[in-house]
Amino acid sequence: MNPDLVAIGGFVLLFVLMLLRVPIGIAMGLIGVGGFGLMGDFGPALKLLSQSPIRTATEAGFGVIPMFLLMGAIASASGMSRELFQAANSFLGHRRGGLGMATIAACAGFAAISGSSVATAATFSAVAYPEMRRHNYPQSFATGVIAAGGTLGAMIPPSLVLAVYGIITQQDIGRLYIAGIIPGILAASMYIMTISAIAIARPNYLPPGQRSSWGARWHALRSVWAITLLFLFVIGGLYGGMFTATEAASMGAGGAFVIAVARRTLTRAGFVECLVKSLRTTAAIFTILIGALLFGYFLTVTQTPQKVTQLLTGLGFGRYGILAIIMLMYLVLGCVMDAMAMIILTIPVVFPVITALGFDPIWFGVIIVMTVELGLIHPPVGMNVFVIKSVVRDVKISTIFFGVIPFVITDLVRLVILIAFPILATYLPERMG
Amino acid sequence: MSHRPGPTARLLAALELFAAWLLAAITALTFTSVVLRYAFNWSIPDSFDAGRNLLGIAIFWGIALAAYRGEHITVDLLWSALGPRARRVMDAFAGIVALLCLAVFTYTMADKVLSTYRDNVQTFDLHLPVWIFYAVAWVGLALCIPLLLLRLWRQLTRPEAGEPAQHAALR
Q1: Residue B122: φ, ψ to 5°
Q2: Do B105 and A53 touch (CB under 8 A)?
Q3: In whole numbers, what is the pLDDT of chain A averaged over residues?
Q4: Which residues, other chains included, contact A397 with Cβ-Cβ below 8 Å and sequence gap of 6+?
Q5: pLDDT tens digits for B18-66?
Q6: Which of A72, A288, A318, A354 is most solvent-facing, going by the fewest CB within 10 Å?
Q7: What residues of chain A, 223 to 262, have a C-beta less than 8 Å from chain B?
Q8: Contact: B112, A30; criterion CB under 8 Å
Q9: Which ipTM score applies to this complex?
Q10: What is the pLDDT of residue B169?
């Protein structure tokens, strides 16, 4: 059979199945095994089905996903998000736009213990939104800040999306996490600068809150020191080569559990709920991972990545021109898909192009996560926007999209900065132990 | 007013709790292993193999339960633009495709369990038979078939009941 025809047919069928709401992982697995069988024989294709999924599910390195999920769930259930917000608010809340800045700072702190954008957005919709509204912040701004702050969950380590990128491209997850630190801090700083600029341009738009005394500030800091120390220990251990990414995740989850139990902020029922939530998300992610790895065999036998690489490099746009096309594709895909699905579906095809063009795979991981995270807040299908809408019921979707506009512009500027200065992402991983 | 969950919901909640506690066990095993390595230069025998095989069990059981509750990641672009009747048709189609795929997967996975048994594959330290872990994982996968049938039946006969996740007993 003509491999090009099978490849095109496979992709068309895959998108049709996905549009008909067949779970993405199952659609990818079906096309992967079916296409592999069509190109050769169905005997080896079924053999593949008997071996690849169990190998994926029992790969020790992939344990990083459920354990970091558990860490985030425990941190959230034990009220650490509220404490982070209170601490940030005590230092920043008295400025114009200070509550927005505090929300971003707290989102960044929460992102350091939770790897999910959606979880970060959902958590702060409940924690920060009422406080901002109480201080007469406009609905659009309050929700826009939370939607943008939520995206920090995928950039600041531990990040689920970066872990999945590492699994698919066989890059070291620890190095990817370390690479995300400076861009993550840059993201939070630029969001805060954006809020500051809005507050200067429209002084009455974002009223200041009450100034906290230094006593209140130290009191607020006391409640977050343990989780800050845990993050530094986990990431420091990764950076220093003390732990693998999976071991770091277990230290993070175990440490968060010990802190929550010691502070009596986690009940038994709450812990069970954390386990169940983590299991559910793990199962959903692994289903698409298993499907993606099966789909990868289909791509290999049809030589799709090589052909796409040839096609794109033959266009004569230069490496940055091709990078721009790829990123544009992600922005468009972000209109219909969530970040995880986009990464899993496209990276097997896009990654060989990137390496053939001589880009650093770790740097590209950071760039691609930033790009797909933009999809979480830009219309028409911004996942974070929908999550906020599900928590804050009296706000219109269009109001939230209006509120995120300044942050989308900030994100685009940040992407340009990171493309111009790759060292921002590669400096720390190059110095890892 | 609170409703007492039915026997199916209670059974599923129990199965989910089993898989969820496996996650706790894997985390505790890895955590303890790291602590012992640095504190006493000693590691728990088979902690690596046990951890990864337990992870496989938790994931396969989780996949089955997620399939029943409709929690797998999907593209809802077209679905959300349709009316209730068309949505039901689309859900039924997706359910049938998922059921067929998982049935084939369960069949091929049984082959893997048997070949692991025949090849006498063992863990590294304690020489535990690996096929037992695979068999337990397979049970979770096999569970998918009746669960997806049950989901399909519910979707076709009681569409107004919504997703099972909305009334599953968790505690």
Answers
A1: -125, 165
A2: yes
A3: 89
A4: A385, A386, A389
A5: 999 999 999 999 999 999 998 898 888 998 999 999 999 999 999 999 9
A6: A318
A7: 242-243, 246-247, 249-251, 253-254
A8: no
A9: 0.90
A10: 33
> Left (φ > 0), alpha (ψ -120 to 50) or beta: where does A138 sit?
beta
Quick one: how far is CA A207 from the chain centroid?
31
Q: Exposed (0-12), middle (13-18) or buried (19+): which is A82, by Cβ within 10 Å?
A: middle
CB A96 within 8 Å of CB A141 = no
Closest-CA residue in chain B for A54? B56
Residue B147: pLDDT above 60?
yes
Q: Phi then psi for A325, rounded to 5 degrees?
A: -65, -45
Residue A103 Cα, gap to closest chain B Cα (Å): 29
Q: Which residue of B has its CA nearest to A28?
A: B101
> Residue A173 corresponds to which amino acid?
I
Q: Are A157 and A235 in contact (CB under 8 A)?
A: yes
- Taking contacts as CB-CB distances below 8 angstroms, the residues of chain B near A253 are 27, 31
Measured from the Cβ of residue A241, the count of other Cβ atoms closer than 10 Å reads: 10
Mean pLDDT of the residues in chain B: 87
In single-letter form, the type of residue at position B161 comes to A
Contact partners, residue B128, CB within 8 Å, separation at least 6? B46, B49, B50, B122
What are A381's two structure tokens? 């299908």
Residue B25 class from Cβ within 10 Å (0-12 exposed, 13-18 middle, 19+ buried)? middle
- 8 Å CB contact between A404 and A212: no
Label residues A195-220 b or e (16+ Cβ within 10 Å = b): bbebbeeeeeebebbeebeeeeeeeb
Cβ distance A278 to B102 less than 8 Å, yes or no, reads: no
Q: Which residues pair with B122 in a beta bridge?
A: B129
DSSP string computed for B47-63: HHHHHHHHHHHHHHHHH
pTM (2 decimals)? 0.86
User: What whole-number distance in Å separates Cα of residue A298 and Cα of residue A355?
Assistant: 20
CA distance B92 to B84: 12
CB under 8 Å to A137, separation ≥6 — which residues?
A99, A100, A206, A207
Q: Distance between CA A175 and CA A172 in Å, rounded?
A: 5
Tens digits of per-residue pLDDT, A111-155? 888 777 877 888 888 888 888 898 889 999 999 999 999 889 888
Contact B16 A51 (CB under 8 A): no
Structure tokens belonging to residue A189? 């700083």
pLDDT category at A3 given cuts 50, 70, 90 is: confident
Tokens standing for residue A213: 């005394």
The C-alpha atoms of residue B140 and residue B106 are separated, in whole angstroms, by: 9
Q: Which tokens belong to B4?
A: 């007492």
